[in-house]
Amino acid sequence: MKLKNHLNTGILTCLCFLLLVAPAVQAQVFRYVVAKDGSGTHTSIKRAVDAVLTNRSTRTLIFVKNGIYEEKIHIPFSNISLIGESRDGVIVSWDDYSDKPGTNISTATSYTIWAAGDDLYMENMTVRNTAGNVGQAVAIRT
Hints:
About 25% of the residues lie in helices and about 25% in strands. The chain has about 140 residues and is of the alpha/beta class. It has a four-stranded parallel sheet with strand order 1-2-5-8, covered by helices on one side. The chain has a three-stranded parallel sheet with strand order 3-6-9, with no helix packed on it. A three-stranded parallel sheet has the order 4-7-10. The longest helix has 25 residues, at about 1-25.
């Protein structure tokens, strides 16, 4: 009986350790936080990406709080992660389309987000092109 209690105590100790340590190991440190209300480091995703300035050999983590971000974003750098607060809460939207009057936009340049650098990672975000039924358009160009 003593051996069984000793094993149970050991298992409980291990579980408690894992429950306390695992979240700390998985914690991510975000270099930038985007929030429309001004509570982050930037109010737009484009400004946060522009703040990266150069290709980095290490990954740059950008957290995006819930909101509708109406912006056209070009990401020329590698190793960028855009992590949204929630899939339905973070919406990146733009409305360009091929042959839009008064512009020189083609299908390729009608993007909402253009990932020109290598290894872009996105999570919990919705990207849309809201041009409608007016011509060819893309949401994400890679």
